[in-house]
Specification:
The chain contains seven helices and eleven strands. With about 260 residues, the chain is α+β, with helices and mostly antiparallel strands. The strands form two sheets. Strands 2, 3, 4, 5, 6 and 9 form a six-stranded antiparallel β-sheet that branches. Strand 2 and strand 3 form a beta hairpin. The longest helix has 29 residues. The protein is globular, with a radius of gyration of 18 Å.
Length: about 260
Amino acid sequence: MGQEIIEVVVKSDKGRVKKVNEDNFLIKVGKINNNEFGLFAICDGLGGLSNGDLASKEMVLELEKWWNNRIANIVSNNIVDRDILVELSCVIRYVNRKLIKYASDNNIRLGTTASILLIYNRKFYVCHIGDSRIYTISSSVNKLTKDHTYYNKLIQNGEIEESKKVKKSILTQCVGSGPSISPDFLVGRLNKDVLFILCCDGFYNKMSDREFMDMKSELEETSDYGYMGEICTKYIELIKGKGERDNITVMAIKYRVNEGE
């Protein structure tokens, strides 16, 4: 069957303008029968200064608890796809309730995006809310997530002229935005080598498809984590040079099957 191997790096930068980096991320990798599997997430906090950081950090902490408490049971009992997604959804909804209560108790507004990727048993599972993104990049750039923004809603409804009048960053939902949230879910099969990119809007806003493809080519040339990190940093600096004002976070995940094993 071949050995499943995961190589992952992440780089995060507070950017040129903001005083605090409100992005947080999670990387968890395990191994069973010599095959690697993992849980990964990018969370972009909203609310300004420490509030956004608090929201995104809370999401990451609860995902880490889920990994620590549940992943062994999922692996040992061959939990089905639907139940895995239900569990991830429950984590998101639990954090949503916590953030709503915290905001109410402290008379503030805060929230976070959550783009979550689980790679396990030759499948990938996506659980997503907000406008951070998960891509796969092969011969083209493929976006696995849908932006939960007012701008994107207008585009989908065919209201092109109206969409030109609104900011692209206005969210229609995120974790902490209200009691009724509807995360998106996706399951896919992994039959060959894949590059996943998880990133916040501060990264993709000023990245062209051509630059994503160039980044893929550079990442494929090495399995050295230090050099992979340098490549991610290079594109963060490219984006900052284009004038991006937001926090910038990008995670590169190389999944491959070593058929020689």
